[in-house]
């Protein structure tokens, strides 16, 4: 999984939060969400199945993710909010999504690369390390380890909720950690967050040299859901 971006963009006195992330090779989609006050205003889903079938290239995926984030930020900065809403409605329609890649791959509102670069919302390197978003429920990894076949790791997941003054720890929330692969049997471990919103899980990955593998972290709290994925690198 590629590290995503979180950027606040102000337009006409309203602050919009743009979040773009890679959903992982098991669900190969670049997802951008536009939030206002914790509510999702618009979304953009761009499948990258072509990268999976042609040979996964992490650098190409990173470039696509950054480009999509820049274009969404530029659209917000230009005041194209209604266009973003319509784009999200198209992605959510029954004929959109994975079964209609041409529609899902439609560009965001007609913004050129030059326009995106000219805005002051271009993600900086520091934006890649932002740990929180404006999502109602959010999960992030603390002291993120390397996920490699044949290794053992201690995964520390921090779960937070949107609060009036920013973020608040989400205590007593179930965290489900799944290990999925085309090369070995799946595994599932469950834990609950403590008062600080932290859940700790120990994982051991089987050795493998081919195929794909990923760690999926899922949390749910009062009908709110959040998840993240990380790629497990084949054994050396």
The shape is globular
The number of helices is 5
Largest sheet descriptor: 4 strands, antiparallel
Portion of residues in helices? 10-25%
Structural class: alpha+beta
Strand line-up of the largest beta sheet: 1-2-3-4
Number of beta-strand segments: 12
Describe the fold and architecture.
This protein is an alpha+beta fold. It has two domains: 5-129, no CATH class; 137-231, Immunoglobulins (Immunoglobulin-like, Sandwich). The chain has helices at residues 49-54, 58-77, 81-92, 101-104, 113-118, and strands at residues 5-11, 14-22, 29-36, 39-47, 137-142, 152-163, 166-169, 174-181, 187-192, 198-204, 213-221, 224-231. A four-stranded antiparallel β-sheet has the order 1-2-3-4. Strands 5, 6, 7 and 10 form a four-stranded antiparallel β-sheet that branches. Strands 9-8-11-12 form a four-stranded antiparallel β-sheet, with no helix packed on it. The chain is globular and about 55 Å long. Mean pLDDT is 78; it is low at 94-132.
Helices and strands in order, then pairings?
Blueprint: E1 5-11, E2 14-22, E3 29-36, E4 39-47, H1 49-54, H2 58-77, H3 81-92, H4 101-104, H5 113-118, E5 137-142, E6 152-163, E7 166-169, E8 174-181, E9 187-192, E10 198-204, E11 213-221, E12 224-231
Antiparallel strand pairs: 1-2, 2-3, 3-4, 5-6, 6-7, 6-10, 8-9, 8-11, 11-12
